[in-house]
Amino acid sequence: MAPLYKAPRGTADVLPAEQPYWDYVCQTANRLCQLFGYSRIETPIFEEASLFVRGVGHATDIVQKEMYVFEDRSGQTMALRPEGTASVCRAYLQHGMHNLPQPVRLYYWGPSLRYDRPQAGRQRQFTQFGYEAIGEGDPALDAEAIELAWRLYQELGLTDLTLQLNSIGCPRCRPQYLEALKAHYQDKLRLICTDCRSRFQKNLLRLLDCKVESCQPVIAAAPPFTDYLCQQCALHFQELRSYLDALAIPYTLNPRLVRGLDYYTRTVFEVQPPEQGAQNTIGAGGRYDGLIEELGGRPTPGIGYATGIERIIANLKRAKVMPPAPAKPAVFVVYQTAAARSAAARLASELRQSGIATVMAVGQRSLKAQMRQADAAGAEFAAILGEEELTTNSVLLRRMADGQQERVASKSAPKGIARRIRQASRPPA
Length: 429
Ligand SMILES: [Zn+2]
Ligand SMILES: [Zn+2]
Fold this sequence. Notes:
There is one protein chain. By secondary structure, this protein is α+β, with helices and mostly antiparallel strands. The chain folds into two domains: about 250 residues, Bira Bifunctional Protein, Domain 2 (BirA Bifunctional Protein, domain 2, 2-Layer Sandwich), CATH 3.30.930; about 90 residues, 3-Layer(aba) Sandwich (Rossmann fold), CATH 3.40.50.800. It has 15 helices and 16 strands. Bound molecules: zinc ion (ZN) (2 copies). The site of one zinc ion has 8 residues, from helix 9.
């Protein structure tokens, strides 16, 4: 019979078999963030829609086409979070974090939602891990943000990725570059796609972002932004690159890498898997020195990065990186007779209180069926309680791997079992 309900299009259940990947990625990311001095922040899954209109940009596809917007019961226009940075900057302002020592280093985890066409590596609900360092414009911080992303993938075992880097200048030098870009496109409007023709009118920088085949030669011949950087931006970029060299982080200069909004400044970077289109980018980040001001704060520099967990996991599978196996129960408690059931429940409880992972057989099943369950659960030992064990106040401990059995006194069962588990897990001499 077909199920009555399915998870909504563009969403996915994360089943137990997938969880080891999630634990692996999340634990690695948490550990690295702590190593780098970042503190965790959690923001709500929805905000006032206008936060994202300002913080992500009115002209972006995210705001124009993809954001889940709804009116709540009081008539306020709210939106489900399409990304993390705007919310973190909102929290920075709301909680007066500019009074803390700067920069404030924050990281976050959580679902984001975009109404997009679902396809491989693109879901409507996806999970982002991201971090922001707000309150300092030093290129050393750009290098740190890049290093954190790079180390994360390295630690996870993704060693074939590439880091793409560019600078998109600042409000001082950008107008000159946009003029040059405009001049470059002026006599090529017939060669480019319809979207690009509208970008030519509204958002010049995004011309460089186009994925349409026919636009590629025009993009390839476009002047690179790095030729037009003002002195401060050029110096910033040069210092960032020398930090990256000192940290031995390999990068590729990509003059087509852009963010099409005024508050994104200078450094932009992306991490990409080998031989994939840009839409399979694993993560992207950059400097947003104008964003806090856009959200009503004082001019405050910041830089951040976000990476999709589902995309990381897809790449772990591609690269055949196996996460550590999940823990199996150490003990599966089974019982021979109904009379032994409460003794079995007590034993299971005592074992758990001693920190031993224990599952107890439930339901009316034969001992043989219970033993099959112990086997299926991957338990290291079965603790068997029957008539004889009840009269002698003992537990029969059976090692599942080889069937070796041993009787342990009930009173000292947790200690005795713990000792045997330690012995069993000790590597052979
Ligand atoms: Zn500049
Ligand atoms: Zn185009």
